[in-house]
Amino acid sequence: MAILEKMGILNFFEGIITADDVENVKPFTDVYEKAIALANASEKDTLALEDLSTGVIAAQNAGLEVVQVIAEDRIDARIGKIVKSDLSFLIMNEESEEKER
Predict the structure, then answer these.
(1) Angle between helices 30-39 and 53-61 (to 10 degrees)
(2) N or C, which end of the chain has less CB nearby within 10 Å?
(3) 76/74 Cα distance (integer angstroms)
(4) What would the pLDDT profile of 53-77 be if each residue is shown by its tens digit?
C-alpha cells in the first residue's frame, strides 16, 4: 500500500487484498482470484497494478491486464516488457476531461 500512498492514489481503491488474506502468495493467482470475487468483477474488467515481477506474473496468469509500477522506467528481464515509473497515463485530470467533452 505504500506505493499507492506515495503516488497519491490510495483513495481510488475501495478495497485491497494482501498476502495475509490468501493461502498461496504470488506468483500464485490467489490474491487476484479473491479480489475479483470480492469485487464481483471479471478478469477482462480488472487492471492489476504491481511493483514486483512476481505480482506481474501472478496477474498475467490470472488473465488480467497489468501495469508494473516502479521507481524508474526500465526493461524487466523476467517479463520481457518495458515498465513505467508512474501512472500518469491512467489518471485523467480535470483539464483533459474538459477537452473530451
Answers:
(1) 60
(2) C
(3) 6
(4) 899 899 999 999 988 777 665 666 6
Q: Please check whether residue 83 is in contact with residue 75, taking contact to mean a CB–CB distance below 8 angstroms.
A: yes
Q: Is the peptide bond before 27 cis (omega within 30 degrees of 0)?
A: yes
| Residue where the block lists cell 479473491 | 34
Whether the Cβ atoms of residue 34 and residue 42 lie closer than 8 Å to each other: no
Show the cell assigned to 97.
476531461
Q: pTM for the complete prediction? A: 0.62
| Residue recorded with cell 499507492 | 4
**How many residues belong to the chain?**
101
